[in-house]
Amino acid sequence: MAPFLKSLTLSGRRIVAACVRHHSSFTTELIGNMDKKAAWDRFYTESSSGSPTFKHFEWFFGFDSVRDFVMPLLQTNSHSDALLRVLDMGCGTSALGPSIYRHSLLPVQVTCADISPVAVRLMQEQAQAKAIQPHNPSSQLRFVELDCTQLLQHYGSSSVDLIIDKGTTDALLRSKEGKGKASLVLKQCLEVLRSSGSLLQFSDEDPDARLLWLETEAQQPGVMKADVGVQEVGELRGVCYYCYQVTPRLIVK
């Protein structure tokens, strides 16, 4: 993978040209309530009803579009522990987490977590009906109901190697009451990541806006300092998408 186009500390932000903003095809009811468990339960219930077969729902794009951002990080984060811990945060019914489990050469424990028990159940049923064979026989795949604002209740500090956020922060930031939750999620992600770990935020939000938000949040009391890089993922239906790589930085007292 080519190095990130912009690799910088949060104390020095560089503005990048904006692209067209994304407007999803979600219902008006869901837009503005993307931080609500009930809204996602309803969404996944309705999207799965009337269909005889399970279909993964990809917000933005699938694994093939982002594998060159994800898989190299697993190689560089190898450590003495038996398994690399990967969290697909706000997985919905995406195939991203299962695809990492399937393709990783190194042993990984992939946790696909979502606030909606409906989405988690659908993923579990699909995994049971169509078993996925991992490249590494020691790899593990789990599906967990999890509110991403409560990561520290499920993970210890410095225990996760890679967190993937494909649109979860976007959903929170675009909700009526979700901005505070997005801030809490970022804080807890930095807390549970190993010093060698990374948070990848995949988003259509322009770098000038997202980097400013990350910079502001990293200056809040009690938030671990971080470095961030951004690279363009590509264009889908006329919309530019980006990958923001956020890594915790040890605080020198």
From TrEMBL:
Keywords: Methyltransferase, Mitochondrion, S-adenosyl-L-methionine, Transferase, Transit peptide. It is found in: Mitochondrion. It holds the Pfam family Methyltransf_31. Residues 82-200 form the Methyltransferase domain. It catalyses: L-lysyl-[citrate synthase] + S-adenosyl-L-methionine = N(6)-methyl-L-lysyl-[citrate synthase] + S-adenosyl-L-homocysteine + H(+); N(6)-methyl-L-lysyl-[citrate synthase] + S-adenosyl-L-methionine = N(6),N(6)-dimethyl-L-lysyl-[citrate synthase] + S-adenosyl-L-homocysteine + H(+); N(6),N(6)-dimethyl-L-lysyl-[citrate synthase] + S-adenosyl-L-methionine = N(6),N(6),N(6)-trimethyl-L-lysyl-[citrate synthase] + S-adenosyl-L-homocysteine + H(+). Its main location: mitochondrion. GO terms for molecular function: methyltransferase activity. It comes from the Eukaryota. GO terms for cellular component: mitochondrion. Gene3D superfamilies: Vaccinia Virus protein VP39. The keyword Cytoplasm does not apply. SUPFAM superfamilies: S-adenosyl-L-methionine-dependent methyltransferases (SSF53335). GO terms for biological process: methylation. Protein-lysine methyltransferase that selectively trimethylates citrate synthase (CS) in mitochondria. Seems to conduct trimethylation in a highly distributive manner rather than in a processive manner, and thus introduces a single methyl group per binding event. Belongs to the methyltransferase superfamily. PANTHER family: CITRATE SYNTHASE-LYSINE N-METHYLTRANSFERASE CSKMT, MITOCHONDRIAL, SAM-DEPENDENT METHYLTRANSFERASE SUPERFAMILY PROTEIN. This is Citrate synthase-lysine N-methyltransferase CSKMT, mitochondrial. It comes from Anabas testudineus. The gene is CSKMT.
